[in-house]
Design goal:
InterPro entries: MetI-like (IPR000515), MetI-like_sf (IPR035906), Phosphate_PstA (IPR005672). It is found in: Cell membrane. By secondary structure, the chain is an all-alpha fold. The protein contains 11 helices and no strands. Helix 5 packs across helix 6 (about 135-160) and helix 10 runs antiparallel to helix 11 (about 260-290).
Length: about 290
């Protein structure tokens, strides 16, 4: 078999694999949208859920999902990027560093249910907080921190060494080189890692079952006091997210329109993740152009 035939055969196999994956994703996406879009309405998005009567919405659960996502990424991104910078630029190349990398990889492969049990032990029972937003955010930080560290380290390592060496040759300090040369060049890859982590946060249910809880208190969206029990911004209140609500409705729901609520919530979840990814990539491109003067 000559090289041209082999090349065409390999190209066809890779193309077929890509087409199968794309078809599966498109079919799943279309199935969710076809069954769920018809259930979405302004009333569905802006009314609170109901445990007994039909016609409930997902207002509180949708807000809780975005709020926990915001708090989680507020903690994860600085710690993850800082850890990745340290591992790539400052950590000595020895057995201890290799052991730390191994621990990070093991931690990133833990099932979310294990992270949830750990979060319940640490942030629910040990602290005495009970089911809270901050407990769920901290558990998800443990869940996503290894991803951010490894992605940041890989992104910084992939930056051409000539850029770093040229900066250091001009007498620029290592920290200033990291801040003005390496990190801006690695922004696209770091942003990809942040998007992957945020997508996992938005769709996570198992870890939040044991940390953020299955209920949401009556919220007053005009109450901006973060220490008030009825304030949506209180981080020490329980918060049922949209993914947990979908699971709860499908498994424990007794409302007459449980299937419609689950289908509509699933469609909103998928659309929200898609819009968030698009907006995050647009924002990342703007930041990258500003930092690199392109």
């Amino acid at each position: 078999m000559n090289r041209k035939i082999t090349d065409k055969l390999a190209t066809g196999v890779f193309g077929l694999c890509a087409a199968v994956i794309a078809a599966i994703l498109a079919g799943l996406f279309l199935y969710i949208l076809i069954h769920g879009v018809s259930e979405i309405s302004l009333h569905f998005l802006t009314s609170k859920s109901s445990a007994i009567a039909s016609g409930g919405g997902i207002r509180d659960q949708l807000f809780n999902s975005f709020y926990i996502l915001f708090i989680t990424m507020l903690i994860t991104i600085p710690l993850g990027v800082g850890g990745g910078v340290f591992m790539a630029e400052y950590a000595p190349q020895n057995r201890i560093t290799d052991f730390i990398r191994t621990c990070i990889e093991v931690l990133s492969s833990l099932p979310s249910i294990v992270i949830g049990m750990f979060g319940m032990l640490m942030f629910v029972n040990l602290t005495g907080w009970g089911y809270t937003i901050i407990g769920g955010a901290l558990a998800l930080t443990v869940f996503n921190l290894p991803v951010m560290v490894r992605v940041t380290e890989g992104a910084l390592t992939a930056v051409p060494k000539e850029l770093k060496e040229a900066s250091l040759a001009l007498g620029v300090s290592r920290w200033h080189t990291v801040k003005t040369v390496l990190v801006p060049s690695a922004i696209p890859s770091i942003l990809t890692g942040a998007i992957l982590a945020s997508g996992r946060v938005f769709g996570e249910a198992a870890a939040l079952l044991f940390t953020a809880g299955l209920t949401t208190p009556r919220l007053n969206f005009t109450d901006l006091n973060p220490f008030s029990e009825s304030s949506p911004f209180n981080i020490f209140r329980p918060a049922e997210t949209l993914a947990v609500h979908i699971w709860s409705v499908n498994t424990q729901g007794i409302i007459p329109d449980a299937e419609a609520i689950a289908n509509g919530g699933s469609a909103v979840l998928v659309i929200s993740v898609l819009l968030f990814n698009l907006c995050a990539r647009w924002l990342g491109s703007v930041i990258y152009k500003k930092l690199t003067a392109n």
